[in-house]
Design brief:
With 122 residues, the chain is mainly β. It has a domain of 67 residues: Carboxypeptidase Inhibitor, Chain A, CATH 3.30.1040. Helix content is 11%, strand content 37%. The chain contains two helices and eight strands. Strands 3-4-8 form a three-stranded mixed sheet. It has a three-stranded antiparallel sheet with strand order 5-6-7, with helices on one face. A hairpin with a 6-residue loop joins strand 1 and strand 2. It is flat, with a radius of gyration of 22 Å. This is Alpha-L-rhamnosidase C-terminal domain-containing protein. InterPro entries: 6-hairpin_glycosidase_sf.
Length: 122
C-alpha cells in the first residue's frame, strides 16, 4: 500500500526500506523497472525471435526479425533448464548462387540447454 508522507506530497512504499531508514540512499534506488517491462522483452522475443513454446523452455522456436537498420543483435536469458541465447549478424558476401553479385546473408548462432528441443530457420 502506498502511504503519503505527512510533510510533503512524496509517496513511499513502506515495504521498500522506508521504515528501516531508507533516506533516499541511491544504492537502494532501482531504475530498471522500465527495462524489464519494455525494451528487454522486445529484444528477446521480437528482435532475436526467441520464443519458449513450453514452460521453462522445454521446447522453443527461433524466428529472428532481421532489419537492415540493425546490422546485428545478441541476447538471451536463463530458465530452470539453463541458458538460451541467440546472436545474428548480417554480412555482405559474394556467392556462386548470386551470380558473383554481393548478397546480404544472415549468420545465426543459437545456444540452448541440453534436454531441450526446438526449431529455427534454415
Amino acid at each position: 500500500m502506498i502511504q503519503p508522507r505527512l510533510t510533503s506530497r512524496i509517496y513511499h512504499f513502506p515495504s521498500y526500506r522506508y521504515n528501516h531508514g531508507y533516506n533516499d540512499d541511491p544504492a537502494y534506488t532501482s531504475h530498471s523497472h522500465g527495462w524489464s517491462s519494455g525494451p528487454t522483452p522486445a529484444l528477446a522475443f521480437y528482435v532475436l525471435g526467441l520464443t519458449l513454446t513450453m514452460p521453462q523452455g522445454k521446447t522453443w522456436a527461433i524466428s529472428p526479425h532481421v532489419d537492415r537498420s540493425l546490422p546485428a543483435a545478441e541476447g538471451g536469458f536463463k530458465t530452470s533448464f539453463g541458458w538460451f541465447s541467440v546472436k545474428w549478424t548480417t554480412v555482405l558476401s559474394t556467392s556462386a548462387e548470386s551470380g558473383g553479385r554481393k548478397a546480404e546473408r544472415v549468420l545465426l548462432r543459437i545456444d540452448t540447454p541440453e534436454g531441450t528441443s526446438g526449431h529455427a530457420p534454415g
